[in-house]
């Protein structure tokens, strides 16, 4: 089997398994929606205030939803022994990890992109900022998944790895959060946001290049 065929087959397998666990599939989306809907109740339904806070609210909610679903990337494979088979596979392990991250983003990040504009309108975000929001999430959420994969690979063998995972990846998530929210805020105020696009694109390129290799090394350490 070629590397490309193995890549596609692994994505297809993870998507089928995710569809069989629909309750787990819905958890990040429900969490994302609930956090955003609860913000107006907590700070008051002031349209101008909500509109100013909308970029940060959406991005923080997306970050926490992505973190909530991170542990599922390798957990089931670790429990049923599939992860060890991936380590012994003839295919490059970073490519297989990239396939798993791609499948994870398709079942968590892509639904966030679909739901986010509706919730942004609910918060009073302007039309000019909606396009910037979609671009920022399209560039930023894959970075969150790639960075989170390294933390998951390091903690996959731990019983209570969720807290450690949060401590590991949250500091690395902060730059993505800052530039993603700043990009939407700049668009809402009529300023240019091309600089933030380039920075997020650079983050994505670095994450695609380095994260699978780092996660492969982390998995070998965790399972050795």
UniProtKB/TrEMBL annotation:
<feature type="transmembrane region" description="Helical">
    <location>
        <begin position="57"/>
        <end position="74"/>
    </location>
</feature>
<keyword id="KW-1003">Cell membrane</keyword>
<dbReference type="GO" id="GO:1903607">
    <property type="term" value="P:cytochrome c biosynthetic process"/>
</dbReference>
<dbReference type="InterPro" id="IPR026031">
    <property type="entry name" value="Cyt_c_CcmB_bac"/>
</dbReference>
<dbReference type="GO" id="GO:0005886">
    <property type="term" value="C:plasma membrane"/>
</dbReference>
<dbReference type="GO" id="GO:0017004">
    <property type="term" value="P:cytochrome complex assembly"/>
</dbReference>
<dbReference type="Pfam" id="PF03379">
    <property type="entry name" value="CcmB"/>
</dbReference>
<keyword id="KW-0201">Cytochrome c-type biogenesis</keyword>
<feature type="transmembrane region" description="Helical">
    <location>
        <begin position="129"/>
        <end position="156"/>
    </location>
</feature>
<keyword id="KW-0813">Transport</keyword>
<keyword id="KW-0997">Cell inner membrane</keyword>
<protein>
    <recommendedName>
        <fullName>Heme exporter protein B</fullName>
    </recommendedName>
</protein>
<keyword id="KW-0812">Transmembrane</keyword>
<feature type="transmembrane region" description="Helical">
    <location>
        <begin position="25"/>
        <end position="45"/>
    </location>
</feature>
<comment type="similarity">
    <text>Belongs to the CcmB/CycW/HelB family.</text>
</comment>
<dbReference type="GO" id="GO:0015232">
    <property type="term" value="F:heme transmembrane transporter activity"/>
</dbReference>
<feature type="transmembrane region" description="Helical">
    <location>
        <begin position="196"/>
        <end position="219"/>
    </location>
</feature>
<feature type="transmembrane region" description="Helical">
    <location>
        <begin position="163"/>
        <end position="184"/>
    </location>
</feature>
<comment type="function">
    <text>Required for the export of heme to the periplasm for the biogenesis of c-type cytochromes.</text>
</comment>
<dbReference type="InterPro" id="IPR003544">
    <property type="entry name" value="Cyt_c_biogenesis_CcmB"/>
</dbReference>
<keyword id="KW-0472">Membrane</keyword>
<keyword id="KW-1133">Transmembrane helix</keyword>
<feature type="transmembrane region" description="Helical">
    <location>
        <begin position="95"/>
        <end position="123"/>
    </location>
</feature>
């Amino acid at each position: 089997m070629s590397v490309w065929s193995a890549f596609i087959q692994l994505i297809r397998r993870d998507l089928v398994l995710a569809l069989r666990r629909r309750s787990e599939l819905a958890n990040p989306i429900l969490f994302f929606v609930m956090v955003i809907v609860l913000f107006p109740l907590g700070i008051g339904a002031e349209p101008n205030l909500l509109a100013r806070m909308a970029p940060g609210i959406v991005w923080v909610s997306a970050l926490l939803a992505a973190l909530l679903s991170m542990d599922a990337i390798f957990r089931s494979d670790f429990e049923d022994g599939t992860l060890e088979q991936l380590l012994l596979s003839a295919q490059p392990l970073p490519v297989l990890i990239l396939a798993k991250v791609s499948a994870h983003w398709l079942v968590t990040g892509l639904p966030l992109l679909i739901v986010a504009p509706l919730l942004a309108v609910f918060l009073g975000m302007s039309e000019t900022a909606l396009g910037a929001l979609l671009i920022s999430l399209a560039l930023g959420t894959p970075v969150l998944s790639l960075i989170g994969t390294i933390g998951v690979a390091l903690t996959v063998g731990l019983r209570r790895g969720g807290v450690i995972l949060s401590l590991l990846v949250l500091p690395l998530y902060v730059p993505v959060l800052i530039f993603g929210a700043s990009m939407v805020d700049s668009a809402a105020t009529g300023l240019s946001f091309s600089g933030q696009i380039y920075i997020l694109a650079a983050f994505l390129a670095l994450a695609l290049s380095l994260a699978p290799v780092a996660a492969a090394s982390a998995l070998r350490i965790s399972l050795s």
